[in-house]
Specification:
heterodimer; A: 6-stranded mixed beta sheet; B: 181 residues; mainly alpha; 6 helices
């Protein structure tokens, strides 16, 4: 189905509307976007412009009203919920603005949790989690709970969870939104390193213009439409 | 894989100390009291009324089990949504929740058995010294405890079905919203 073997994700004529308080909000309007494998893409725009909705439909968290999302050769716009879950577990890593670590689990358990529902052996899962934590320079904090970590450490833990399964794509929703400038630099440098070392496609949604230097491609959105790609 | 999910459910349950302690205590008390009245119903100790008490306590356990299931799902909506985002299926999450609910019930059963064993040991020891000879050596027979626990587990099935239905409604998008949004 993909037009180009280098294409990782392709959005074709994607539309999405929401109803809020009786009014119809057009979150995505005829969006067409091609993201190549190994690209670092920043999606920017003002609050409410549809950038998070775009991230949701690209990952199959939300389905478009019309159009196609070709993810690694498969149209996920009409996939079942179970199929979408499996695609996310195998091919996508998520990084959240609010870190979304499970408070009752330690750093290493949080990282491992992604692989719990797999057939991998416990030892293999542990080894991968240790490697992922080492990649984000957080190994010494592996037995700490989220409440014992700083914002930057929590986000690096979230990043380790996002890479433990060596995903094809990492989707990050405002990953530095809750971080100080130093932690922001650490997290963005790590994302860039992951992109280079693992040839992972990185898609970052952000409203911060200061992150532009990390990107291979910048997608600007306004009122649900892509107004500029450079 | 389901076994691992249950193992992790036990781990997560034990870490939620307050909720786990409160509900284990409630289940322990209910299993103990229901078993006791069941024993009285069997032996005819306080007449027909014992049977009504058994029904009342089983009804209470059903309500509390539903409450526990509701708390497990509602309090952790963000966690379940996050797990859905990172690739858990509804079935995976249901395994975690089933493990949490059954483990708490099982702990209640084990504590009741433990208490009854200790009671028998203490009373047996004291009676060997001719103290408290009027107390029965067995407070509640094993059969009422096992029957009560079995019915409790059946009651938990209703709670698990409720939890599973609620989990279907947790949308992964919740994980992407800001806290408090």
């Amino acid at each position: 189905m993909p037009v180009d073997k280098d294409t990782m994700i392709e959005a074709i004529d994607v539309n999405k509307e929401y109803r809020r308080s009786g009014a119809i909000i057009r979150a995505l309007a005829d969006v067409n976007l091609t993201i190549k494998a190994g690209e670092f893409v920043l999606v920017q725009g003002p609050t409410g412009c549809g950038k998070s909705t775009l991230l949701n439909v690209l990952s199959g968290i939300d389905l478009p009203d019309s159009g196609k999302i070709i993810f690694d050769g498969e149209n996920i716009a009409r996939a079942t919920e179970d199929r979408l879950s499996r695609i996310r577990r195998q091919k996508i890593g998520f990084v959240f603005q609010e870190f979304n670590l499970i408070p009752t689990l330690t750093a290493i358990e949080n990282v491992e949790s992604l692989l719990w529902p797999t057939v991998l052996r416990e030892k293999e899962i542990e080894n991968r989690a240790i490697a992922a934590l080492r990649d984000v320079n957080l190994l010494e904090r592996k037995d700490h709970y989220p409440v014992q970590m700083s914002g930057g450490e929590k986000q690096r833990c979230g990043l380790a969870r996002a890479i433990i399964h060596r995903p094809r794509v990492i989707l990050a929703d405002e990953p530095t939104g809750n971080l100080d400038p130093e932690s922001e630099k650490q997290v963005m440098d790590l994302l860039k390193k992951i992109k280079e070392d693992m040839e992972t496609t990185i898609i970052v949604v952000t409203h911060r213009g200061s992150l532009a230097s990390y990107a291979d491609k910048i997608v600007k959105m306004e009122k649900g439409a892509i107004i500029n790609i450079k | 894989m389901a076994f691992r999910m249950w193992k992790k459910a036990v781990l997560m349950t034990l870490r939620e100390k307050k909720l786990f302690s409160v509900f284990t205590l409630i289940y322990t008390s209910l299993i103990f009291i229901t078993s006791l009245f069941w024993e009285l119903a069997i032996t005819g100790g306080i007449g027909e009324i014992a049977g009504y008490f058994v029904l009342i306590f089983l009804g209470t356990s059903l309500l509390l089990s539903l409450l526990y299931a509701w708390i497990i799902v509602s309090r952790n909506r963000r966690t379940w949504a996050t797990l859905k985002c990172i690739g858990y299926t509804n079935k995976n999450i249901n395994s975690l929740i089933t493990g949490k609910i059954l483990f708490t019930t099982l702990m209640g059963f084990i504590i009741v058995i433990e208490v009854l064993f200790h009671y028998t040991a203490v009373v047996g020891y004291l009676q060997s010294a001719a103290i408290l000879v009027s107390l029965p050596l067995t407070l509640v027979g094993l059969l009422p405890v096992i029957l009560t626990s079995f019915i409790f587990i059946l009651v938990q099935m209703v709670a698990i079905v409720l939890a599973n239905r609620k989990i279907l409604k947790v949308r992964p998008m919740i994980a992407l919203k800001k806290v408090g949004e």
